[in-house]
Design a protein that fits this description.
This protein has helices at 10-21, 39-51, 67-76. The chain has 77 residues and is mainly α.
């Protein structure tokens, strides 16, 4: 899953991506809101973007296929 496939969270996703690229992502984040709006999807995409070895070469988008990306998704299941 790439950042561009997350619908309806453009502002918070933009803030997260900007903080990530500036190396200023806060160490503690709170994802709050009604059930089913995509908090988990945003959090998992952020985790994969931070740890995927291919993300830097893909403008911050996690590849979704490497061992790290697959492990993060599997751990959330």
């Amino acid at each position: 899953m790439s950042w561009s496939s997350i619908i309806g969270h453009e502002e918070p996703v933009g803030r997260l991506r900007a903080a990530m690229s500036a190396g200023r992502l806060h160490p503690a984040l709170l994802f709050e809101g009604p059930e089913g709006i995509g908090k988990r999807l945003v959090a998992l995409t952020l985790a994969r973007a931070l740890h995927c070895p291919e993300a830097a070469a893909r403008a911050g988008d996690p590849c979704g296929t490497c061992r790290v990306c697959r492990a993060i998704v599997a751990s959330a299941a």
